[in-house]
From TrEMBL:
Record's protein name: Ribosomal-protein-alanine N-acetyltransferase
InterPro entries assigned: Acyl_CoA_acyltransferase, GNAT_dom, YpeA/RimI_acetyltransf
Gene3D superfamilies according to UniProt: 3.40.630.30
GO molecular function per UniProt: acyltransferase activity, transferring groups other than amino-acyl groups
Keywords: Acyltransferase, Transferase
Transmembrane segments: none
Cited PANTHER family: ACETYLTRANSFERASE, N-ACETYLTRANSFERASE DOMAIN-CONTAINING PROTEIN
Keyword RNA-binding: no
Alphabetized Pfam families for the sequence: Acetyltransf_1
Amino acid sequence: MIFDRLRKAPPDPHVTALRPDHARAMAALHAEAFARPWSAADLEAMVVDPQIVGDGLFLGRDRQPSGFALSRTVLDEAEILTVVIARRHQGKGFGKILLASHLGRVMARGITDIFLEVEEGNKPAIALYQAFDFIHTGRRESYYVKPDGRRVAAHMMRRSSS
């Protein structure tokens, strides 16, 4: 019986900086989440870019991320480029763990304003960002392409510490 509980125990999540050797796993996660996924080469280039903060969500002893967040910083502003949690781990609170840690690292660079775009109908993501004090600032029509080719608007959001 104790072995059953151990097997069903939730994985121990931790967030750490991404490395270039995570790029393939990141590309697979991104492809699972977006109709126009980024390549491993693109993601590797982002991870080594000094203006980009990249954090991975790791579960238990996994060596590859089950989620990740990337933000580009310029002076005192940042843009969240992407936040991805593996589909099989969504709805378990891992997005909050990842985003809390990621925002902490971004803000440690002296960032006062963070911007992002999220697909307008993505209610779980919008709720997550609102929980971290992001507010709606506008829309970008026909911004995202769905797998079936339809285009949907982006919900633009901003978080300010000033």
